[in-house]
């Protein structure tokens, strides 16, 4: 069989990062009727490494319209993520001296979780969101939102209607586009000559070092390093001039970019992250070869944990119907026979079943009422926030666990951290 070509440079993909088998779409929650009819279709989930440009990517097994046109993730559900957005808005307003004559645009603006903070400060905003059901939430709170996929062609139309932007944010979306070139090509058109573009994305280095394999799922087409992001931006006339390390999503980067000719000078943090990636060997294909055996170890440990709870006849539930949790559960072969329910605050998920495992999604209040023996927190990046919410259970003796990257028990809930779901 002919190797799959790299979506960035076209080179044949001959190196594997990890093959997670055939799994359902991580955010495709189903009703009981749909599950009975077998409508949660599964697709191959294999992450590969390009030996030429070093982009880590999964095969394009599913068209993006099947994933993003009707989406079950609403950013505002996580209070800590909204707080993270508010901090960003305040920082950018000061750093870039944004005001009533500026325009802030966000690509993949979701339900307005970020733009609402700029708008409250009197700064004009524009959301760009392909999922109509999610965009409707933003529009309902007065956030102007264009419902369309972003690329070079759509960027031209947006500029004609709204003008160019002083700040363009693109949080946790660069990894979600199969045509990364066509996507990036739109930003130079949308950005004013001295404008600033920021990307946030989970850092590939953390995925490798901390075995965060559950962040791999079909809608994450790419897994990004600064090395690769600088390369693709450079090809479209954009220059990275600063980078910040963020705690969100298990460790993310916030990359600041501008046009080649803009006046923004390179900041010291840029060289620091470049050196850290080079020291970890992200520029060498052989660095990635040890990842798959480490994933297998984590999966085996979780399966043993589940088996021990069943043998002891302990009632086990989960919290957080997150995509990363669905990757973990399906890779481990977990079903509702193992975990009786999962709680989530998102109304769009409640009353449905997790894809593949068919574990029912309930409200947090319903989960607490079950008085389970153990709770597995699936969104490990906000484990402390969830543990604080579940304190009524833990004080009664319920054990709280975090499944990955390393299975461990949380002994005492603490105050929430500023992390994203």
Description:
The chain is of the alpha/beta class and 421 residues long. It has 2 domains: 75-288, Vaccinia Virus protein VP39 (Rossmann fold, 3-Layer(aba) Sandwich), CATH 3.40.50.150; 291-410, 3-Layer(aba) Sandwich (Rossmann fold), CATH 3.40.50. The protein contains 16 helices and 17 strands. It has helices at residues 32-36, 64-68, 79-95, 115-120, 132-140, 152-162, 180-184, 187-190, 204-209, 226-235, 268-279, 291-311, 323-332, 364-370, 383-389, 391-394, and strands at 15-24, 42-49, 56-58, 104-107, 125-128, 145-146, 165-171, 191-202, 222-223, 238-246, 252-259, 316-319, 342-343, 361-362, 374-377, 399-402, 408-410. The strands form 3 sheets. It has a 7-stranded mixed β-sheet with strand order 6-5-4-7-8-11-10. It is globular. Residues 412-421 have low confidence and may be disordered.
Question: What key phrases describe this protein's structure?
Answer:
alpha/beta; 421 residues; Rossmann fold; 17 strands; 7-stranded mixed sheet; disordered C terminus; 2 domains
Number of domains: 2
Terminal Cα separation, in Å? 38 Å
Tell how many strands the DSSP assignment holds.
17
CATH architecture of the largest domain: 3-Layer(aba) Sandwich
**Judging from the principal axes of the Cα atoms, what is the shape?**
globular
The largest pleated sheet is described as: 7 strands, mixed
Taking Cα atoms only, what radius of gyration do you get, to the nearest Å?
21 Å
Identify the CATH homologous superfamily of the largest domain. Vaccinia Virus protein VP39
The CATH topology of the largest domain comes to Rossmann fold
Q: Please estimate the helix content.
A: 25-40%
Q: Could you list the spans in which at least 5 consecutive residues all have pLDDT below 50?
A: 412-421
- State the strand order across the main sheet: 6-5-4-7-8-11-10
Instruction: Round the mean pLDDT to the nearest integer and report it.
Output: 91
Helix-and-strand structural type = alpha/beta
Fraction of residues in β-strands: 15-25%
Helical segment count: 16
**Assigned CATH class of the largest domain:** Alpha Beta
């Amino acid at each position: 069989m002919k190797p799959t070509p790299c979506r960035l440079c076209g080179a044949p993909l001959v190196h594997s990062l990890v093959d997670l088998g055939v799994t359902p779409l991580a955010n495709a929650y189903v009703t009981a009727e749909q599950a009975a009819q077998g409508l949660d279709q599964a697709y191959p989930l294999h992450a590969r490494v390009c030996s030429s440009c070093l982009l880590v990517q999964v095969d394009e097994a599913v068209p993006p319209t099947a994933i993003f046109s009707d989406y079950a993730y609403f950013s505002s559900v996580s209070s800590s993520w909204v707080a993270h957005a508010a901090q960003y808005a305040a920082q950018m307003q000061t750093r870039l001296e944004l005001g009533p004559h500026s325009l802030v645009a966000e690509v993949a603006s979701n339900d307005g979780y970020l733009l609402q903070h700029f708008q409250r400060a009197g700064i004009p905003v524009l959301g760009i969101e392909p999922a109509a059901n999610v965009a409707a939430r933003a529009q309902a709170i007065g956030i102007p939102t264009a419902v369309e996929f972003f690329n070079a062609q759509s960027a031209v139309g947006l500029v004609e209607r709204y003008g160019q932007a002083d700040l363009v944010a693109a949080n946790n979306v660069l990894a979600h586009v199969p045509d990364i070139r066509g996507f990036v090509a739109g930003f130079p058109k949308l950005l004013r000559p001295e404008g600033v573009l920021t990307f946030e994305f989970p850092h590939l280095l953390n995925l490798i070092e901390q075995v965060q394999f559950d962040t791999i799922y079909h809608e994450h087409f790419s897994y990004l390093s600064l090395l690769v992001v600088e390369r693709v931006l450079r090809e479209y006339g954009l220059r990275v001039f600063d980078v910040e390390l963020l705690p969100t999503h298990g460790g993310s980067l916030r990359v600041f970019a501008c046009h080649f000719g803009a006046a923004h000078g390179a900041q010291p943090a840029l060289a620091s992250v470049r050196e850290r990636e080079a020291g970890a060997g992200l520029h060498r294909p052989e660095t990635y070869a040890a990842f798959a055996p480490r994933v297998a170890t984590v999966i085996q440990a979780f399966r043993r944990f589940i088996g021990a709870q069943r043998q002891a006849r302990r009632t086990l539930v989960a919290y957080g119907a997150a995509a990363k949790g669905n990757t973990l559960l399906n890779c481990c072969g977990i079903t509702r026979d193992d975990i009786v329910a999962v709680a989530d605050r998102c109304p769009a998920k409640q009353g449905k079943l997790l894809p593949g495992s068919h574990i029912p999604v309930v409200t947090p209040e319903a989960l607490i009422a079950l008085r389970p023996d153990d709770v597995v927190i699936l969104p490990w990046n906000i484990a402390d926030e969830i543990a604080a919410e579940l304190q009524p259970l833990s004080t009664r003796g319920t054990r709280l666990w975090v499944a990955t990257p390393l299975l461990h028990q949380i002994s005492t809930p603490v105050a929430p951290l500023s992390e994203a779901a």
